[in-house]
């Protein structure tokens, strides 16, 4: 039989086009599309060997998901990345495809087929994941990837970014409320507009969660107090243009790029954005 059950891997590697990255991180899953499985390698060594026998063999014939005969096109390193993923679903949906060969094949072919079958593993369905690292193929030049070190960086899914940002905004809001208790009645009356604007932005943020893009989430996460940033811009926009929509205000704030100079930044988040580590095959 061609398909056999495989042990659940603790982590897997997936080769994909850079153009797919945003949708993958938005979905938090690798889609199987027209195939019954989505395919992975269990190590970078296996990924290297798999690529050498497949995508790096320009013109080599193979059978597609629908059984049609195809040929590998020229591989473009600058268009691809490798994702290192930690699967969310731990149930036994993992399978290995044993390469089929004709009966009475010579031992060399049997051995080659067996070795090739060990290079990849399939997940039956769409694979949800909880952690991801991007391994950039472009800068290394395929030859360097195949023979040496690679550079990777941690990334988060859109849902993970939203969770992190919502926790920070909630903390900002709770801190702001506690500080109000220390103010005198006269001061509270004087900052009534600020209080109303802060409460409005807090509410608008919570209501806009599903509509915020990855770019919006990443932009706000760079600030120690994103609620203050949103509030001050909201007050400014309301004074000049009544009825400003929250998402439109955020887009303007992000595109202008002035807030980064006016508000404290989260140094820990900035460091995670810059952090890269070298991994040896």
SSE order and pairing:
Elements: E1 3-5, E2 12-17, H1 21-27, E3 29-30, E4 37-40, H2 44-53, E5 61-63, E6 69-71, E7 80-87, E8 94-97, H3 107-117, E9 121-124, E10 127-136, H4 141-147, E11 149-155, H5 158-180, H6 185-190, H7 192-207, H8 214-221, H9 226-240, H10 246-256, H11 259-262, H12 267-274, E12 277-280
Antiparallel strand pairs: 1-8, 2-7, 3-10, 4-9, 5-6, 7-10, 8-9, 10-11, 11-12
Helix pairs in contact: 5-7, 5-8, 7-9, 9-10
Structure description:
With 281 residues, the protein is an alpha+beta fold. The protein has twelve helices and twelve strands. The protein has helices spanning 21-27, 44-53, 107-117, 141-147, 158-180, 185-190, 192-207, 214-221, 226-240, 246-256, 259-262, 267-274, and strands at residues 3-5, 12-17, 29-30, 37-40, 61-63, 69-71, 80-87, 94-97, 121-124, 127-136, 149-155, 277-280. Strands 2, 3, 7, 10, 11 and 12 form a six-stranded antiparallel sheet that branches. It has a four-stranded antiparallel sheet with strand order 1-8-9-4, with no helix packed on it. The longest helix has 23 residues, at 158-180. The radius of gyration is 25 Å and the shape is elongated. It starts with a strand and ends with a strand.
Features:
alpha+beta, 4-stranded antiparallel beta sheet
Largest sheet: 6 strands, antiparallel
Going by helix content, strand content and strand pairing, the class is: alpha+beta
Q: Any idea what the radius of gyration is?
A: 25 Å
Q: Cα distance, first to last residue?
A: 33 Å
Could you spell the SSE succession in H and E letters? EEHEEHEEEEHEEHEHHHHHHHHE
Helix content: 40-55%
Uncertain parts: 137-143, 276-281
Share in β-strands = 15-25%
Assembly state: single chain
Mean pLDDT reading: 82
**Count of distinct strands:** 12
Q: Label the overall shape.
A: elongated
In DSSP terms (H or I, runs of 4 or more residues), the helix count works out at: 12
């Amino acid at each position: 039989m061609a398909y056999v059950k495989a042990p659940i891997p603790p982590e897997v590697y997936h080769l994909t086009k850079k153009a797919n990255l945003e949708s993958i991180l938005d979905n938090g899953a690798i889609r199987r599309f027209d195939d019954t499985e989505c395919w992975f390698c269990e190590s970078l060594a296996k990924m290297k060997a798999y690529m050498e026998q497949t995508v790096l063999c320009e013109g080599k014939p193979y059978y597609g998901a629908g059984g049609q005969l195809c040929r590998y096109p020229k591989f473009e390193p600058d268009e691809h990345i490798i994702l290192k993923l930690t699967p969310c679903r731990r149930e036994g949906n993992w399978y290995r495809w044993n390469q089929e060969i004709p009966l009475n094949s010579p031992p060399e072919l049997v051995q080659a087929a067996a070795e090739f079958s060990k290079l990849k593993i399939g997940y039956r369905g769409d694979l949800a994941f909880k952690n991801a690292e991007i391994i950039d193929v472009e800068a290394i030049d395929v030859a360097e990837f195949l023979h040496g070190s690679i550079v990777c960086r941690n990334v988060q899914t859109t849902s993970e970014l939203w969770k992190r940002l919502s926790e920070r905004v909630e903390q900002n809001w709770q801190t702001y409320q506690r500080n109000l208790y220390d103010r005198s009645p006269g001061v509270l009356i004087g900052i009534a507009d600020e209080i109303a604007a802060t409460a409005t932005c807090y509410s608008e943020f919570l209501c806009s969660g599903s509509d915020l893009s990855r770019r919006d989430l990443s932009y706000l996460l760079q600030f120690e107090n994103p609620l203050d940033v949103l509030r001050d811009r909201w007050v400014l926009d309301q004074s000049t243009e009544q009825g400003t929509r929250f998402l439109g205000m955020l887009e303007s704030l992000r595109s202008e790029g002035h807030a980064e100079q006016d508000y404290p930044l989260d140094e820990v988040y900035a460091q995670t954005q810059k952090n890269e580590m070298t991994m040896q095959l």
